[in-house]
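Quick check before the chapter quiz. The format below is the same one you will see on the exam, so make sure you can read both the input and the output lines.
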Amino acid sequence: MIIMETERLKLREFNDDDITALYSIFSDAETMKYYPAPFTLLQTKNWIKKNKQRYREDGYGLWAVYLKESNELIGDCGLVKQIVDGKAEVEVGYHINKKYWSKGYATEAAKGCVEYGFTHLGQEKIISIIDPKNEASIRVAEKNSFMKDKESFIFSKMHHIYSVQKNKYNED
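Here is the expected output.
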């Protein structure tokens, strides 16, 4: 089921046929630099399973990101519920195959997901949890009107929490 289309991308729910392509991304050490370790095949299968559960329970999750022109899976992007400092938040997150870095795909996919969160889910605020050393993700957040809110200890280490309010989104 296609969730949305952007200029160059399609985002849809994951299915079991995506495991091999997603594993090739998640098993790469450079792509997973800000995670504790690259994913095993089992962790990748569980990632897809967890997102299918999110689709059922929340109505959203991380979606498969495909190039429109080739139908190649290049990563994931979507919205997930997170608890930050005891408060429920909705986060936009993504992983893009490193051979497609610096082409604007993460920014484009994240923008589509943020707009989806505001328009279809009625969110007033969306966050992004970013490792302070992850300069590429910081740039993606800033290109999508996110501002650094605070620092928070989450996922076993300190992260920067960026956010954007619906009423401030893309006002520039």
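If your answer matched, good. The chain is about 30% helix and 35% strand.
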